[in-house]
Amino acid sequence: MTATDLPPGCGDQEITKAVILIGGPQKGTRFRPLSLDVPKPLFPVAGVPLIQHLIEACVQVPSVKEILILGYFASDEITPFIGEIRPLYPTVRIRYLQEYTRLDTAGGIYHFRDQIKAGNPSSFIIINGDVGGDFPLQEMLEFQSNLKASGKTPLLTILATEATRQQSVNYGCIVENKETHAVTHYVEKPETFVSATINCGVYVCSLDIFPIISKIYATRQQLFYEGKIEENGETWESIALERDIIMPLTAEGNLYVYHSNRMWSQVKTAGSAIYANRQYLAMYRRRQPDRLAGCNKGKGDTTPRILGDVYIHPSAQVHPSCLIGPNVSIGKNVTIGPGVRIRESIVLGDTVIQDHTLIRYTIVGWNSYIGKWSRVEGTPCDPNPNKPFAKMENVPLFHEDGKLNPSITILGCHVRVPSEVVVLNSIVLPYKELSRSFSNEIIL
């Protein structure tokens, strides 16, 4: 890409690239059955695809002029979405670059290094596609810029937050020099407690990282052709930013930490999508209140009663006698009948919910149907409010004894729930028509 390819007005000014890593179809298993219908990055949270929230975070940074989305989803799964949203962000160029195989976090960056370096950006942002939050990207860029101005040579700045001592072992743990904020030790998912400071999967990188990845690439290539690396389902070209770069380079003194106490969460399970939905709706209230259904108050009896933060797509038809909220998102062309009560849930597009139904802690898939006087309810799996810095647990689907862990209820796409049926703490796969009530089951 040449300077003439860049958006107008950024030919001479300092620019920043943004890279969003979305992985591919072999992942997202904990997000099933929802990821069976749509790539996980395109799953709607608070009425907007998860990846669009990340794009909007990048667009807020004035120096970002291009956003590159890297992954190995088929191009025809991602590029139509990009075509739809491009007009919303005219000052930023957005492209999808498809990997030929799973290259991991640093492998994909190295493979597309020419596209990242094009236009001579001063630095570039990396965001893992399975996180959500209120990212202080501009502050991170200024932090790294100040380090350079003071004579330091920062290679990488890691966004970090605090977790509980017990939960920290599920994340990348960072030990830092409290005075300089330099990383002195890093362990990815340690077996024992290392630090309550955890990696958020958001980085600001210097272009100097590419020669380092190049050396790792050359070494792995040589070892592979000498027969010293077996692929075992993972290509030798797969290079992990955390394992292969951050962990070995902590002794160099050019990795730094930027702390944030803003909202942040991984979005790895359906339960975490409900939690992220709540957090993004709260962000709308602070920054984009026009997205919330609450802005329709005062229109008489033509709108339902709204509690708390609620998103309702303009095409949805919700009966005025309904009580919706808090923390509910209702998608395109949804029809909701009289007397329906919905809270802490996501209702996806083209769904029909009949009269006097109760829905709590549930994700209702696309094109589903729920009959009259039914009850669909899950178990909340939020962070413990009594523990400071507690994060989502992202528990496995089953206990060690094989029993289903209590969690939110999920109805896959094209599921039909008849009238006067109760569905509790269950997962219903797509295209199922229920004939009775279910509790704590997976309906195949």
From TrEMBL:
Secretion signal, residue range per the UniProt entry: none
Mannose-1-phosphate guanyltransferase C-terminal domain segment(s): 307-443
Residue ranges of every copy of the Nucleotidyl transferase domain listed in the record: 17-218
Segments forming a coiled coil: none
Source species taxonomy: Eukaryota, Metazoa, Ecdysozoa, Arthropoda, Hexapoda
UniProt record similarity statement: Belongs to the transferase hexapeptide repeat family.
Pfam families per the UniProt record, alphabetical: GMPPB_C (PF25087), NTP_transferase (PF00483)
InterPro entries from the UniProt entry: GMPPB_C, Mannose-1P_guanyltransferase, NTP_transferase_dom, Nucleotide-diphossugar_trans
Entry superkingdom: Eukaryota
Protein known as: Mannose-1-phosphate guanyltransferase alpha-A
